[in-house]
Design brief:
Helix content is about 50%, strand content about 10%. By secondary structure, it is an alpha/beta fold. The longest helix is centred in the middle third of the chain and has 34 residues.
Length: about 230
């Protein structure tokens, strides 16, 4: 690590929030970082990166800038409220740890209570990365097995369609009437009919509707109202 110096340590506090609803809120992260900085006397600079993926640090521009600033010596360390705010990847985490040790700055992870400036802290950080990687793989395996079981049971998988049934039935009728997938897409685009996801209509989009479980259920369900009533 760097030579001891006078004055408070300059610490970059990294706050990350993705689109995952299970995320710890930015307010909670900020409060934890500010509390620790006050307790330890750090000179804290907060960096917030919102609505970004945890998959890899290479897809987080502010984190990349922060790592460059740490390498340049602008900060003495990087602090996060939770390990997964920094990385959920063992590969990324171990690379960041190795960089910090080579470049002379520390990682402070509040939920683990570790500071990698010490040998014990670096060891615990590395151990936590290993356990996090194992947990991630186990969760992925369980999720995959559950999806396979649901598919085997005939349950619908994937995104739930929000396309109105009337639009789905119309697409079916247009295709049955002889229009190609491309022609149907062009017609719906011309009429400014929104897709289920709010994007543009393409032949592939129309094909997805025609092959959807929801449409098949509409066509097979004898309990639905007559077509004329649905389209009224």
């Amino acid at each position: 690590m760097k030579e001891a110096h006078s004055g408070p340590l300059k610490i970059a506090g990294y706050v990350r929030v993705s689109t995952d609803k299970q995320d710890i809120s930015p307010e909670v992260q900020r409060a934890a970082l500010e509390r620790e900085a006050l307790l330890k006397g750090y000179e804290l600079t907060l960096v917030e990166e919102l609505a970004v993926s945890a998959a890899t640090v290479t897809k987080r521009p502010l984190m990349q800038q922060l790592l460059a600033a740490l390498k340049a010596g602008s900060f003495d360390g990087l602090m996060v409220a939770k390990l997964d705010r920094l990385s959920r990847s063992m590969e990324d985490g171990t690379r960041i740890l190795a960089d910090s040790q080579r470049q002379g700055w520390r990682i402070i992870c509040l939920d683990l209570g570790v500071d990698t400036a010490t040998v014990m802290g670096a060891g615990l950080f590395n151990m936590a990365l290993n356990f996090a990687e194992i947990e991630r793989k186990l969760i992925g395996k369980r999720t995959s097995e559950a999806m396979k079981q649901k598919a085997a049971d005939g349950q619908h998988m994937g995104r739930v369609s929000v396309l109105p049934h009337t639009v789905m039935l119309r697409i079916h009728d247009l295709h049955r009437g002889g229009l190609s997938l491309r022609q149907i897409a062009e017609l719906l685009e011309a009429e400014q009919v929104p897709t289920a996801r709010g994007g543009r209509w393409h032949a592939s989009t129309v094909r997805s509707v025609l092959s959807s479980v929801t449409l098949q259920r509409l066509l097979n369900d004898s309990s639905i109202a007559p077509r004329e009533a649905i389209e009224a």
